[in-house]
Design a protein that fits this description.
single chain, 561 residues
């Protein structure tokens, strides 16, 4: 008896060790930051710590006398109250007093110097940006004279395009109001003359200019001229050329104009992000996905450093919400660095730890219910534990990834200017036919797949229970009574389906998850189908067999009597 008590105590102690070990493994998995549906701030902080800050970029630009870039980087540093920005701001103010013309350009340029070296700053236009330089009659005439002597065919095509008369939103260069267009063409011409355009952008521009000059229709280039005019009004020469040096296509220029117009209060942030990222297109794609929320994410990322901002737009994931970066232990710091360098493996490791931790925890907790739990074959016990562990993993994944169950989808930028409609065309209503979409959102597919897997696991448990009864060496009548006793288990698919639907609808009403009736009612549908399959294809045939066997047994007993 004493040995038996010691044996029971040893089993209980072993189960408790498994429970504690399982919970500890889940805790370690929870500590691993992952990038599945959002980027943790801790990852961005680590990425930024391994790169330069924007104050460093501003200081480097000042040393190179690139005051336009330094000014933009300093504005971004001010947004986050970065240290040393006041000292750099004083240096820029001193440079503005000592070299006002150079500060107006933003950086020294050989073509600007050749054309404008004899023109005092007082003759410049009061309008901002490089456009303001071109709006000055003296500056514009000098710059046009410089470009007219160019041997570059694209420069000549630009000047010829200004003389076309089919503009709808701009005035030809030859008209009284043609200064803005001519200033824009001069700005583009300086980029081409200085070989500041990327090869792909230059090819696209050359193709559109050739088409416009051949047909006399400026539609292929007028939008580009308008977009460039808007950018030239916002940026000085240093900023203007730095941005165009990274643009790969004309569509990106249009999207930049929209972003600058939409968030005029964040122009330095969007500009610096576009020039520091691998390409401005990455930043525009990110804003196209997340809109104003993306701008706020960029502002948070730049506070960590250049590497953080680059990672944010490269991964194209939203920023984790409502979590500040606090001091972390050395072990947590190691996990953050490991996740940064191994994003895919860290994600697999995190969810694997969730699974094995839940499996050990439920295995260990089984000692608490041992006294009233019926004995089950080993295979059925393993399937039950796997089922509960899988459900636990899904719950832990949703809890650790809040963006999986967001009730408010991000509204990205459309990058389209909506112009007011002044009148109907010919008094007719234009009907645009659209085809219905048959695609599903990823979250819907994830929810439907989850409910489907639940029903498969319930079916497997029912199948194992039937097989267990079938293998028992008892009379057919007893087996029939056991099958009747398991009716609640065979109906469990319906209970699980109804519970999934009710929980989904309650969470939708509370606003915790996005409203989606397809995902909610799919749980109920799968439950009905699952129970029908269990009852018709599994339980009913076996009960028929047991009834027939029991009748034969009764008949044989009657004959013996």
């Amino acid at each position: 008896m004493t040995l038996l008590n010691y044996s029971n105590r040893g089993k209980i102690l072993g189960h408790l060790v498994l429970l504690v070990l399982g919970l500890s493994i889940i805790g370690v998995g929870w500590m691993i930051p992952s990038r599945f549906k959002s980027i943790p701030r801790s990852i961005l902080s680590e990425a930024g710590a391994r790169s330069e800050s924007f104050v460093d970029l501003a200081q480097t630009a000042i040393e190179e006398e690139n005051y336009g870039i330094a000014e933009m980087n300093l504005e971004v540093a001010k947004l986050n109250l970065a240290a040393e920005w006041e000292v750099l701001d004083e240096i820029l103010s001193q440079a503005k007093e000592e070299s006002p013309v150079l500060y107006r350009w933003g950086v020294w340029d050989p073509f600007l110097d050749a054309a404008l070296k004899d023109i005092p700053l007082s003759d410049y236009s009061a309008q901002p940006g490089i456009l303001g330089v071109g709006l000055s009659n003296a500056c514009r005439r000098s710059l046009v004279g410089l470009l007219e002597n160019s041997r570059d065919s694209t420069v000549k095509s630009l000047l010829d395009a200004g003389e076309l008369s089919t503009y709808k939103r701009l005035f030809p260069v030859s008209s009284v109001s043609g200064k803005p267009l001519e200033s824009t063409l001069v700005s583009i011409g300086l980029l081409v003359q200085g070989d500041r355009l990327t090869p792909s952008l230059k090819r696209e521009l050359r193709s559109r200019l050739a088409s416009a000059l051949a047909s006399g229709d400026v539609a292929p280039v007028e939008d580009f001229f308008l977009d460039t005019l808007s950018l030239a009004r916002t940026l000085n020469w240093s900023q203007f050329r730095s941005l165009f040096e990274k643009i790969q296509d004309l569509n990106t220029i249009s999207r930049l104009r929209y972003a600058f117009h939409r968030r005029s209060d964040k122009v330095p942030l969007i500009f610096v992000s576009s020039t520091v990222a691998e390409s401005p297109q990455q930043v525009m794609d990110y804003l196209g996905l997340y809109g104003d929320e993306g701008v706020e994410a960029l502002e948070s990322a730049v506070s960590f450093g250049v590497g953080a901002m680059q990672m944010l737009v490269r991964e194209k994931l939203p920023l984790e919400r409502a979590k500040s970066v606090a001091a972390v232990s050395s072990f947590k710091s190691y996990l953050i660095g490991f996740s940064l360098q191994n994003p895919g493996f860290s994600l697999v490791l995190k969810y694997s730890l969730f699974f094995f931790g839940a499996l050990l925890a439920f295995w260990g907790s089984s000692v608490l219910t041992r006294s009233y739990r019926e004995s089950s074959p080993p295979l059925l016990s393993v399937v039950q534990r796997l089922f509960v562990s899988l459900v636990s993993v899904i719950i832990l994944v949703v809890l650790s990834e809040p963006h999986l169950a967001r009730s408010d989808a991000s509204q990205g930028y459309s990058f389209k200017f909506v112009l007011p409609v002044l009148a109907e065309v010919n008094g007719e209503t234009i009907i645009i036919e659209t085809e219905p979409t048959t695609s599903m959102e990823p979250t819907t597919l994830l929810s439907v797949s989850f409910f489907f897997i639940l029903q498969i696991l319930v079916f497997l448990i029912c199948l194992l229970k039937v097989r267990q009864i079938e293998r028992e060496d008892i009379d057919s009548l007893v087996k029939l009574r056991l099958m009747e006793n398991e009716e609640n288990l065979f109906d469990s698919g319906l209970y699980v389906g109804i519970a999934g639907t009710c929980i989904s609808l309650v969470l939708q009403v509370l606003g915790l998850i996005e409203a989606n009736l397809i995902a909610a009612y799919s749980s109920n549908l799968f439950g009905i189908l699952g129970v029908a399959i269990v009852k018709i294809r599994l339980v009913r045939p076996y009960k028929n067999k047991l009834i027939m066997d029991s009748q034969e047994r009764i008949a044989s007993l009657s004959l013996k009597a």
